[in-house]
Design brief:
Elements lengths: L4 E12 L18 H12 L6 H4 L5 E7 L5 E9 L13 E20 L2 H12 L17 E13 L4 E4 L3 E2 L3 E4 L7 E10 L5 E10 L5 E5 L3 E4 L5 E2 L3
């Protein structure tokens, strides 16, 4: 979708774990929340059922951009997994599986959202303003409780392709025409899920680029970006 204004809020928490998709019990975490995580958090604030949430935030129905505020910091915390095929395994220490799990520490992200449904947009704005959510929001797994701070509603200025700009948000690699780096930056590319069906099947993975310390990335974009009036952040949809 092509938005003319966005809702802006910041997500933060002590820890986050955005589990990578290599296995069902992967100990590794993405360095940033994938788009599917952010749409899930917005859905939790609104109270949308998890089996309806994914398609509610399809590309033609929503605009989501993510800015990294705090630098990426990873720690490993030991977990003792329990085999659960039988209740007797809870008391059988031989069935326990010690595993070091990768977590992100002291995380904070700025989220920009717009949607085609005016009622949903208005409800989200009201909930954000009153600092309420229908469901408890988490940063990945249920043990990583999140909080949020409403920043406001901002109008957007469209920036056409092939313009030199300082990108403040995570950007898909196909949207990067050329990097214009003239000073040291800590960049990372990662393949992350971006869209799912309502049956929780991922329909699209995409390679995205971001700066690990939250610094802006100088580049030429191959498609439309936006300047947030009042914040001066330059953002791109995921």
């Amino acid at each position: 979708m092509i938005p003319d204004k966005v809702l802006c809020f910041e997500l933060f928490g002590d820890y986050a774990q955005f589990r990578k998709f290599f296995t069902n019990m992967s100990p590794l975490s993405f360095s940033i929340p994938p788009r599917t995580v952010i749409s899930g958090i917005i859905g939790a604030i609104l109270g949308i059922d998890k089996y309806e949430n994914p398609e509610t935030f399809a590309a033609d129905k929503s605009f989501i951009a993510i800015k990294l505020i705090n630098p990426v910091k990873k720690v490993r915390i030991a977990h003792n997994y329990i085999k659960t095929t039988s209740p007797t395994h809870i008391f059988d220490y031989k069935s326990h599986k010690p595993t070091n799990i990768e977590f992100l520490k002291n995380v904070r992200y700025r989220v920009f959202f717009a949607g085609t449904d005016p009622d949903m947009y208005a409800k989200l704005q009201q909930l954000l303003q009153s600092h309420k959510s229908v469901y408890t929001i988490c940063l990945g797994i249920s043990g990583c409780i999140a909080d949020f701070q409403y920043m406001g509603e901002y109008f957007l200025e469209r920036i056409p392709a092939q313009q030199k700009l300082m990108m403040n948000t995570v950007i898909p690699m196909p949207s990067v025409h050329k990097l214009l780096i003239d000073s040291p930056l800590k960049l990372q590319k990662v393949v992350a899920p971006t869209f799912m069906n309502n049956d929780r099947t991922v329909t699209k993975y995409e390679e995205v680029l971001f700066e690990m310390n939250g610094e802006p990335i100088p580049l030429l974009s191959s498609d439309t970006s936006y300047r947030v009036k009042g914040l001066d952040d330059i953002i791109h949809a995921l």
